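Aim 2 progress update. The chain analyzed this quarter is reproduced below.
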Amino acid sequence: MLNKYLPRIDFDSYDDFIKNFTINIPDNFNFGFDIVDGWAELSPDKLALMWCDDNTENNERSFTFGGLSRLSNQAANYFRSLGIGKGDVVMCVLRQRFEYWITAIALCKLGAVIIPATMQLTAKDIIYRANSAKIKAVVCYSDSDNFIAAQMEEALPQCPTIKIKILTPGKRDGWLTFNDAIAKQSDVFPRPAGADAIEITDPMLIYFTSGTTGMPKMVLHDFTHPLGHIVTAKYWQQVREDKLHNSMSDSGWAKFGWGKIYGQFICGAPIFAYDMDKFVPKNVMERLEKYRIATFCAPPTMFRFMLAEGMDAYDFSAIEHCGNAGEPLSPEIFNKIKDLWGLDMYEGFGQSESTVLIANFPWFKPKPGSMGKPAPLYDVDLVDTNGNTCEDGEEGRIIIRNTNAVGLFKGYYMDDKLTAEAFAPDASGENVYDTGDTAWRDPDGYYWFVGRNDDMIKCSGYRIGPFEVESVLSEHEAVLECAVTGAPDPKRGQVVKATVVLNKGFAASDELVKELQDFVKKMTAPYKYPRIVEFVDELPKTISGKIKRAQIRTQTSNG
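Predicted structure tokens:
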């Protein structure tokens, strides 16, 4: 399959990779027809998806590419019978239910626009999304207490564009049912032609960003976006054809698109999906062992909790490659996984607006804590406040100079003003995409994350990146995990605040606060130490394990 899109698959060095990697983009590329149906034609019994959940009955199912092709055709026919077609916007709130893959592929074949969404949405969130994106239909998971269905019903009076409500796997008054309905449809769905033909420049996917400030933005990707994830899957995650890959992510987040569908299917790597009710380290490790996962990617927070639970009791010998993303990796976790698994951890960096931008690739050895080096699809640069390229060792904003790169978003949906701000001229007058993230580059070409521009703490004239403080605190034996944010201060503008979850056997005290502060002062520049230390039982997180720093900042500001 890769031969259809890559003139060259193998490269001799990172330099060779950067200079010579290219992607052939067919004029009518469609992930549903060309990849899923393509594999179904070549090898219908090839495993595509291994799924399980936390239920005690019927909690495991496997799907071949032939099966996904037929099921997605049935779903496409069903959606079309309801009046959903090219350009219509559909929001899917499906956790890691297998119906997500069926639905996403079906909507792709129709030319409809999918909005992945998290189960944590409230009625207020739904109203904002529905009216901003003109959502026509919603497909929702019916969890045990029907939380998301109830939130939808509360929101609907203020969502005039939503005309269709579909529920799975259960039933509820006023909702259509998914599995029963698609079973009655034909499993043949020809590629649309004529007025319904899908162009590669048509909108395919919208992510709502988490929004560190203000309301979430709508990140728009077209039908070429999945091809950009070839680099994500093949060269960063290093997936193996016919061997299970697991990226820890719920379908409501962009990381799902990075690690659970697009690039992996193009490479012929089957996906392992564990639709967990909540993250329980023991449950995750049992499944990594049971299903013999070959390539694995998770946020550093999840690794930290698995380490705290104890990894020695499990057999992880099937894991051939290990990666992390979602937040920066501390050298402490890198070294512990290296000791236990004998594997380097390959960090990757990117956004909802992109595929992998910077990562550790096969041709060079990862440095603990570094994001790695730029991906070949993107002309990455670091610039100072005047837009000039930074020297090695100098902190700067990460920008993308080739704004037409395969995989990069096409703008903020229905918001020309925000799009113009994102793709603004640099010092040379050429438009660039400003990621809003800050980093520095060492003399060997490795990039080191400092923080989101919005997350930077400005204390008494100093700019402090939260990750560098978190990385130090995480090395203290008392700290299980932590989040560093800025707290308002009348004299200094902001001060560093550390919100800390303690390891077992440690108790909060004034003495421990002082010990942690002194520890930071000894390990890094003293001005970076946390003047405020708050102990909590747990940090607020997304369902995929990413810490909600914006929520912590808001709680701090509100006292």
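DSSP finds 17 helices and 27 strands in the chain. Residues 65-81 form the longest helix (17 residues). These observations will guide the mutagenesis experiments scheduled for the next reporting period.
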